[in-house]
What does this fold into?
Amino acid sequence: MTDVKLVVQRFDPFVDLKPKLAEYTVPKREGMTVLDALLYARDYLDHSIAVRFSCRQASCGSCGMKINGRPRLACYTQIDELKGDKVLTQPLDNFAIIKDLVTDLDSFFSKHRQQMPYIMRSDAQELEKPTGEFMMKPDELEKVLQFTYCIKCGLCTSSCPTVAMDSKFPGPQALAQAYRYLMDERDEGGERRLEALDDAHGVWRCHFAGSCSFVCPKGVDPALGIQLLRRHVLSGKPPRKAGEGAKVVTTTQAQK
Ligand code: SF4
It folds into this structure.
């Protein structure tokens, strides 16, 4: 068994003037992930290391951090796939540091909420007292499917050069979700969505660096979503208006 040289960027904004690096020697085991190594260091070597995690299976998006300089999920990165004799862990760029590897995602989630990430309908009564389901056709689902895989880990936003320069820019995650709901055939809120996007700090600020799509651990292509979104903002025409969304299919109809 060899050891892992784990380097953790330490910073407590209430105590430290600037970040410093601390090195820990962790016994390596087969299949060990960077999160495993960090938790070993925290449990057995230094209880004060701050790291956020939850599902340990690339589903919750909690353990995003820079690993050897690139935004990754710590639970989804095995030590063996990394090059070099040390593993350097640092907090994600473009977010304030709460402590060590834990960043403040408040603005990230608030920008996500600003895109109204829910289905908007004109038939409020059906939403209140559903008689069935709004079924999607397979080809319509295909248009948005990859964007539904987003786990809101923030890796794309941390790698975005425009987010680094413009704090009002919604960022690739939020804009990709705007596209996902605009194109959802059950949604009728297109006019409101396009209006919100056509802003000096909105969809036009993307320089198409493409780093968001490069780092996404779930295969989402936010850069593509932003480009496709621009077409709709430019035309000013939502894919459908109030009353044109997918019709409700009752349980009896679905069984026929
Ligand atoms: S688009 Fe990808 S990188 Fe961005 S938040 Fe969603 S899952 Fe994470």
Summary: Residues 61, 150-156, 173, 176, 216, 218, 220, 222 surround iron/sulfur cluster (CB under 6 Å). The two ends are 61 Å apart (CA to CA). The longest strand covers residues 3-10. The chain has eleven helices and nine strands.
